[in-house]
Design brief:
Layout (H helix, E strand, L loop, with lengths): L1 H6 L14 H56 L2 H23 L2 H14 L1 H43 L1
Length: about 160
């Protein structure tokens, strides 16, 4: 009995032929597919982020132009000092837009990470404020759509009672 065990090679199961070559290739194929899927998803996300960055830059340019145009009206109505504040705000928005357009998405993500590391309390407060504003906007949109629906619903019974 000891002779048969010593004649077997390490890893040999003693005559039972288990076909283990398919398992590693299937596992490897699955791993390769998951990696490919993750890479594709990452590339799509980068594309969407790049598109969003471009749109945000355009929107900021339009905002800066609006502020700059409004500065003349502010000069006339309120005073030149306040008009200068509007021009300064327009310049700041324009500079931010230029910086945003010049940077790559990865650089922006790194900047955000650095900001969160340096000022976590400010980052949490900003996230909470943005979340609050988004929640209010969504709620206002839902309330507006439900008001339209309730107006139609309230008109219908009134029309039925007149007939």
């Amino acid at each position: 009995m000891a002779d048969t065990a010593s004649n077997q090679a390490p890893g040999d199961t003693g005559g039972t032929d288990t076909n283990n070559t398919d398992k590693p290739s299937a596992t490897q194929t699955l791993k390769d597919n998951v990696i490919k899927f993750a890479n594709d998803a990452g590339e799509k996300a980068k594309g969407y982020a790049e598109d969003g960055k471009s749109r945000a830059g355009t929107a900021l340019d339009e905002l800066a132009q609006m502020l700059h145009d409004a500065a003349g009206t502010v000069d006339e109505k309120v005073g030149e000092q306040y008009g200068q504040y509007a021009r300064s705000a327009a310049d700041a928005v324009s500079n931010f837009s230029g910086t945003l357009k010049a940077k790559q998405v990865d650089d922006l993500i790194d900047d955000a990470r650095d900001f969160v590391k340096k000022s976590p309390a400010v980052a949490i407060g900003t996230a909470a404020a943005i979340g609050f504003v988004l929640a209010r906007l969504v709620k206002a949109g839902l309330d507006a759509s439900s008001d339209k629906g309730s107006d139609k619903a309230s008109d219908k019974p009134a029309g039925d009672s007149e007939a």
